[in-house]
Amino acid sequence: MILSMTGFAATSAQLAGASLTAELRSVNHRYLDLTLKLADELRALEPALRERLAERLKRGKVELRLGLLRAAPGAARLAVDPDRVAALAGAAADVARQVPQAAPLSVNEILRWPGVLAEPAIDSEELAQRALALVDEALSELAAARAREGAKLAVILAARCADIDAQVARIAPRVPAVHAAYTEKLNARLREAGLDPNEDRLKQELAVFATKIDVEEELSRLATHVAEFRRVLAAGGSAGKRLDFLAQELHREANTLGSKSVDAEVSRAALELKVLIEQMREQVQNLE
Q: Are residue 104 and residue 48 in the same domain, yes or no?
């Protein structure tokens, strides 16, 4: 399957007293360029995360955001620190003995006392495992998004291949007639100049010139490159660089076809081929 380099994925997971979020963004790039933005508690995972990303992705500018949001104290679950409450009660009893008229502490005041409601602790090993699993989930979603985008691009590229074949098929039958007509035109000009086109030296010169305007080789190469383009497209995988090379070769043949053309119809076809191939190159730039 052909994969695009463009995609987005977002996943999240709930922990005791905190939530994990992972976002992956990917755009086209010549190589694999990784950017990681991690919460402070997760920075130790950077080498493992880079290894995971490099295993699953071959090309693209990829940004991973991995965040950890702690819940407000007591929001996940109420956890009263008994030692803190006992110490507070002992202090309150001492005050009551020394100041009998002092009002006793209320439950609300005890709960609001710093340290009485403790935040649930997050186990570092569990946090690391959940973070890695969350990134794996995001990678799977990103791969699915890139595959869907790649399938759409493959359809567009296949259509451009068919358009190129149509242009080649339209002008290929004209080549012998164009060649003969141009040769006869040159012969007529030589006769007007008082020269004999059948003279051996002139015949050799005409033959050499005829090879310079012959575009059959360019048409054959265009067809060959399109066939190879289709084969690579069907094979799938990380084919972006190979397809980009083939698009460059197609463009070179179309340029040569236009420069050698001595027929208006062939020249128009060469121009149309350049437009089609440039459209292909724009799409190929987005493939992994």
A: no
Cβ atoms of 21 and 37 closer than 8 Å: no
Same domain, residue pair 153 and 139 = no
pLDDT tens-digit series, residues 166-187? 999 988 887 766 666 666 666 6
Please indicate, yes or no, whether residues 167 and 183 belong to a single structural domain of this protein: yes
On whether both 94 and 179 belong to a single domain, the answer is no
CA distance 234 to 237: 9
pLDDT digit string, tens, across residues 182-234: 666 666 666 666 666 566 565 565 555 656 667 788 889 999 999 999 999 99
| C-alpha 53, offset from chain centre | 13
Burial readout 160-196 (b: 16 or more C-beta within 10 A, e: otherwise)? bbebbeebbeebbeebeebbeeebeebbeebeeeeee
Question: Which pTM was predicted?
Answer: 0.69
CA-to-CA dists, residue 225 to 157, 247, 248, angstroms = 13, 8, 10
Domain span at 35: 7-72+123-143
Q: What does the block give as tokens for 64? A: 């991973």
**In a domain? residue 117:** no
Within-domain flag for 2: no
Q: Please, what is the end-to-end C-alpha distance for the chain in angstroms?
A: 11
Torsions phi, psi for 63 (to 5 deg): -120, 125
Task: Round to whole Å and give the CA distance between 275 and 277.
Answer: 6
